[in-house]
Amino acid sequence: MAEDEAFNWLSPFASIDLDIDGRTDGIKQWAIANRDTIQPIKSFFDELISLIDTTLQSVPPTIMLIIVVLLAWQAAGRRVAVLVAACLLALGLLAPGAWELAMTTLAIVISAVLLCVVIGLPLGILAGKSDGFEAAIRPVLDTMQTIPAFVYLVPVVMLVGIGDVSGVIVTIIFAIAPLVRLTSLGIRGVNSSVVEAARAFGATPRQIMFKVELPLATPTILAGLNQTIMLALSMVVIASMISVKGLGNEVLRAMGRLDAGKAIVGGLGIVLLAIVLDRITQGLGRSGRERGHRHWWQSGPVGLILRLTGRKSEKPQ
Amino acid sequence: MTQYTNEAVIRCDGIWKIFGDRSAQAMKAVVEDGLSKDEIRRRYDCIVGVRDASFEVGRGEIFCIMGLSGSGKSTLIRHINRLIEPSAGSVVIEGRNVGEMGAKELRALRAEKIGMVFQNMALMPHRTVSENVVFSLEVRGIDEATRRKVAQQAIDAVELTGWERKYPDELSGGMQQRVGLARAIAADPTILLMDEPFSALDPLIRRQLQDTFMKLSAELHKTTVFITHDLDEAIRIGDRIAIMKDGILVQVGTPEQIVTEPADDYVADFVAGISKLDLVTAARVMQPLEQYRQTNGATDPANWPVAHPDDKLNALVDLAVTSDNPILVRADGADLGVVTKSALLRGIQGRQDVGIETGGRI
């Protein structure tokens, strides 16, 4: 037994080969073999992404800027709206093509975040309800968040090929964790006596979920959404390696050419986009009543229009 | 005190609740070997919440369960609408066994038959006062117009008119619990479960809410189970009182029975500080006329002040200060007994006059 002689107790690992990398490389073979089943799913997501992209691109920048600022005003108040307007102006002025690139990046981020919500919210609710599921999903989330993106970049590309869909999948893997975690935390943080009261008044488990637990967990869930958006944005450069267009691609190309100026333009674009998305979603997280309003339609542009049209939004108390 | 019939609306039979991972085994051991609370904790690492509790509540009756914190009273009340499943025993509401109900039937029972008020209010912070009040109607799918009408009635009943559109955190503690009360009565249930509803409020507000509750109770005649750790409150509100200690119902009786005939030292300790003035009746402290005549010779009670056997000590004191004579107790034209000044004073103290040994035992 020649292998035994080579075995060294002080340094055992060098002589043992379980061939883990060789076996896991089988994923590649499996991916290639199953390409046909993947294709329809891929084309669905492709269409979703390009729909969002073309929608965003078709709106003239000025109109888009106004829309986003009004959105920020409604969601987060006047001060945030001013900040958002400044950020968007700066973004547009960075470079002649920066606005279009930013919209492409935004389309990828929106698609990824939409899918994160569709997948992550139910998972988070489940984790909030069941200790077993929480314990099972926690290591999975830890892995997804910490494993270097390049590791799953290759299998994903094997599976669906390069392009926006792979970019979105990679982004989801990296960005979904906080949404699941904070949804679970939000559900667990709901005052149990309020849930008990709902039970005592004959609510079904479904009604308790939608009428009590989710509304009360909303601020926490929105904090998770905010984190997910931020992580999704931080993935755009890595995603551009698998041929995702947008601001990330600018940074990547600038890196290849050692073009520091271009890298800064791309990087600043991502930062400005991040600030805009962050402030708007943070504003959503704070309830309107915290800002002194009773309902969302009593503030912001909607409130202004309602007041201007002379319709009292509420009859006086 | 409200009038109530003897028909039992709520009947609890031998309810046991043992908490812990091995509660089923512990319960079996209790049935077979009659383990004590400490033995159950040592051998099975289980906590006994309720130990063999049986009681009935008649229609329209206010049944107070009194005990210190940790005595299991909140656990017991949650068995009535099955928020907690008993380890053993059964709860029957209007002839139907709650333990045998399916999920749907149970929800209907909770929404339509039982209203509950919680110590910490447990209002939904994201809903306005009126949305909170009609929650049980909303989950049953009742239309908006009816809901609005019912909400208004319930809110008016608890004197919160004008606050319908406010959110719970805009209200004071006392007002929040009024909302809790309105929510409980909104669906016009047969039964009210009150889990220490006024304990978290300061004394003045508590008094106000007790008054509101008693006024409502007199109008609505709800069968009520009322939990409190305050004996004064129990006596003020309850038709009957159950004293609970370590999961056991130590004594069940009218306030007067509890105060004058405590079942054991624990209850006696509890009632020691309670004013007897509005609880103890003349019948309890009087001695029979014959006996009085034997010790004091034949006397003519013609100009003595006269009281009814059901008159409370407070009324007797008022009579006693008007005259130097003892008080004659008379019912339906018959002279029943005599309350001497010393018997009256001892009665107020909660002790028996050494000179007499009859009437009620105090």
UniProtKB/TrEMBL annotation, chain A:
Gene Ontology cellular-component terms listed: ATP-binding cassette (ABC) transporter complex
Pfam family, one: BPD_transp_1
One MF annotation (Gene Ontology) recorded for this entry: amine transmembrane transporter activity
Annotated GO biological process: choline transport; glycine betaine transport
SUPFAM superfamilies: MetI-like (SSF161098)
InterPro entries, alphabetized: MetI-like, MetI-like_sf
Keywords per UniProt: Cell membrane, Membrane, Transmembrane, Transmembrane helix, Transport
Subcellular location: Cell membrane
Chain segments annotated as transmembrane: 55-73, 80-99, 105-128, 149-177, 229-248, 260-277
Domain of life: Bacteria
Family per similarity comment: Belongs to the binding-protein-dependent transport system permease family.
Protein name in UniProt: ABC transporter permease subunit
The species this protein was found in: Paracoccus onubensis
From TrEMBL, chain B:
Superkingdom field: Bacteria
Coarse class of the protein's main subcellular location: membrane
Gene Ontology MF term list: ABC-type quaternary ammonium compound transporting activity; ATP binding; ATP hydrolysis activity
Domain ABC transporter residue range list: 35-271
Enzyme Commission number(s) of this protein: 7.6.2.9
Mode of membrane association: Peripheral membrane protein
Subcellular location: Cell inner membrane
Keyword Nuclease carried by entry: no
Catalysis: reaction(s): a quaternary ammonium(out) + ATP + H2O = a quaternary ammonium(in) + ADP + phosphate + H(+)
Keyword S-adenosyl-L-methionine attached: no
GO biological process terms held by the UniProt record: amino acid transport; glycine betaine transport; response to osmotic stress
Top class in the EC scheme: translocase
CDD domains: ABC_Pro_Gly_Betaine
PROSITE patterns: ABC_TRANSPORTER_1, ABC_TRANSPORTER_2
GO cellular component, one term: plasma membrane
Keywords of this entry: ATP-binding, Cell inner membrane, Cell membrane, Membrane, Nucleotide-binding, Transport
Similarity field: Belongs to the ABC transporter superfamily.
NCBIfam families for this protein: proV
Name the UniProt record assigns to this protein: Quaternary amine transport ATP-binding protein
Source organism of the structure: Paracoccus onubensis
